[in-house]
Amino acid sequence: MKLSRPVVWARAMSQNRRQDSEISRWLAIIAILLVLPGMAGLVLGVPWLVQPLPTFAPARASGALLLPLAAVGLLVKLSGHRRWAQLLAVLCGVMAIAGAWIALRGAEAPFDAMFMQRLGPEFVAGAGGLPVSVAVLFVFYSVALLLLASDRQSEHTLLMIGGLASLQVATAGVLFTAQLAGLVDGTTVQPLRAPLHSLLAALALGTALLDRVSRREQLSVAPPRWAPVLAGVSSGLVVMVLWQALMAREAVQLRARAAITAEAIDRAAQRQFRSIQRAVGRGAAYLTASRTDEDPMWSTSLPRLITETDGLRHILWLDSTGALLRSASPKVVPPDVLAALQAYVRRSTVRRDSMFTAHSTTLLAGPWRLALWLPVLSPFRGPTVLVGLIDEVEMIRLFTDDASGEFSLRVLAADTVLLQQGSEASAAMIFRAPLVLGARRLSVEVSERTGLARSPLPDVVLALGLVVSVLLALTLWLQRRNWQQALDEGQRFRAVFDTAFQVQLLLDHTGTVLEANRAAGELADRAPDALTGLTFWRAPWWDDDAVTGERVRDRFERALAGETQRFEVELGRGRDRALTMDFSLKPLLDSARRVTQVIVEGRDLTIRKRAEESLREISALTTMGRLAARVAHEINNPLAGIQNAFLLIRGAIPTDHQHYRFVGAIEREIARIAAVTRQLYETYRPDQTMVAESSVILAVSDAVSFLEQVNRGRQVRIVTDMSRAPTMVPVPDALLRQTLYNLVQNAMDVSPAHGTITVCAVQEEQECVLRVADEGPGIPPALLERIFDPFFSTKDRSMKTGGMGIGLALVRQSVLAVGGRIVVHGRPLGGTEFEVRLPMIPLDTGVLR
């Protein structure tokens, strides 16, 4: 018989598993060997082993511990120890995240700092924990290894492993190439630099994961599932690195232009300052040689010099006491400036150190802080000084106007901004240079102006590169998709198997399973491919029952003889609930009317059986409820007459009568009977609406409010917790209210005075859980099995509200009728707790509505 294509693939994959393990094992060993040089360099203090190439980051002690741990985890997985591999994967991920956290906080890793101190101060600065890029790579790896070591590996899991491994290989490869070419230096991704050893080890381990995933896929010429992710991420990262390199190049060029601009401003300002020095110096020399202090230069040449010299504001002549002799300024000198000059002259006269020396000084007051100090030994005045006041802001402004087209400029004195060209919002500072004008210490900041046109090359490269990356990934994905579509066309038989709700198997003439659908795998609690090759009567769902297996084998022999066989069997061992399965064996005949194969179909009848039982429970519940309500109604009518007649008689009996004490006893008994009948009618009256859904919160609120009023004499407190209760449950409102009424009333009956009853409702997965707990004496263990029997009660018959023994029986029937369950257990501190679990999914009877 010709085997189907999936069987051939399964056998081919099993034959390649040895090669798969060997390749992955060698790659893990290579990863460990790659880390050894860095570890040796850290231990021996050899810098070139720690950092073989300057464009890569130095190796870290934390990375030297992380990488062997990651490789050992893969080796342990290949040896078959899944649990240990999962533990090592988790430990690897935790170490990677902790190292990155230390690095991001700027803290020092103890082991890194200890080893880096032996290598030199330039290595100590890098001892700040594991590089973020390496941490991300091994977080990808640890998650992929954890999935690879899981017990069940579905197609979705394999796809996730391939995607994570592709991200790891792509990121490590691009970082390795970019750092090797020096494209990372000076870019915004420079903090992501990683050690050479770590990147090579990450490449080896990621390749090992991809090798394992690719060999588990169906053999074909199509690209593996992770190929689009690897191609797209790799090309995208290459484009991003190239874009960052172009942006860094643009930034370097911009900084160079900014430096040239700042240098040009400095040269021009120095040249203008020296020009002012020479001009004022000529005036000082002329005064020294003059024979009169009323020289016409004060009214002609010096004012013209101030007007024609940019930056020169005033020229003043002061004697040795600071008195103003003459002024060539067209405007009045501010008083604070003159006072500052006079104070400086007096200090200089006292010190006698700068009175006769040409220099510049910085004033402490006035709008112009820079002053040229030139001594003049006048024949008429004696020692004097000629002072030139310079407006440095105006002088520098002449040379910043030309550069403000491309840059925003600021001139600062310490932190005070003296001049700003381009006042609009600008980008961050590009370059800063000192500007020294005599005694005045300034600085020039150059920033790029916003909105300025820049080179479009980086953005064009980024856009085109990302488009190419997307197209490359899309091309590989389309190729894979087209191949998958072709494969689906050739696997129609398999598709029919997998989409069927019932169990379907294809057996050969020996009873061996050739094909199994997804439902069969779910019934066996394993992958469908794991059933291939098993004998039908030894399948996992028979629970190793030899008797059942022989009977199933006998039915197979009959089917092999040409008879269609059908039988029901209950599967319950090792399951939460028993399953009722209906199996049919249908022979397949060839052209010669010989049986060659047998098709097995198995239908789950559990829901239908449960629905039939639920319908019977509901019918019984309805009958009992109607009977109870009718009994209550029939009792209530004569009881009303008795109560009215007694009220008339009670008034005629004097209080001193010898039997007057029986009046209260009769009244109490009538009240007790009335309470019991009212409870019976309110609890079990039929609900004509039978609403499909009911509100848990409203039902609990109504039951608690009513029962607190009825039992207010017992002084019992009811505490409710509806914070996690579902809004609606798919059960009839009457059944829910009857259940709550009985459970809370029972708790009232057994609670001591001033006791507390707790009622809570929570949603746990697909169930609504109601819990009613009391502080009563509890239920003896011997009676736990009987409390749900009809007409069995542990209450005192003298109690006014109970003792009938049908409340808990009806509660159990109500809960079972909607597919739920009820349990009772004692509380550690005393009392009893009833727990009702109602399904949040409506009970499906399988009937088409």
From TrEMBL:
Keywords, alphabetical: ATP-binding, Kinase, Membrane, Nucleotide-binding, Phosphoprotein, Transferase, Transmembrane, Transmembrane helix, Two-component regulatory system
Record domain PAC: where: 565-617
Cited SUPFAM superfamilies: ATPase domain of HSP90 chaperone/DNA topoisomerase II/histidine kinase, Homodimeric domain of signal transducing histidine kinase, PYP-like sensor domain (PAS domain)
TM ranges: 26-50, 56-75, 87-104, 124-149, 161-184, 196-214, 226-246
Reaction equations catalysed: ATP + protein L-histidine = ADP + protein N-phospho-L-histidine
Descriptive protein name: histidine kinase
Pfam (any one): HATPase_c
EC number annotated for this UniProt entry: 2.7.13.3
Species per Swiss-Prot/TrEMBL record: Gemmatimonas phototrophica
Keyword Transport tagged: no
Every Histidine kinase domain range: 630-842
Record CDD domains: HisKA, PAS
Domain of life according to the entry: Bacteria
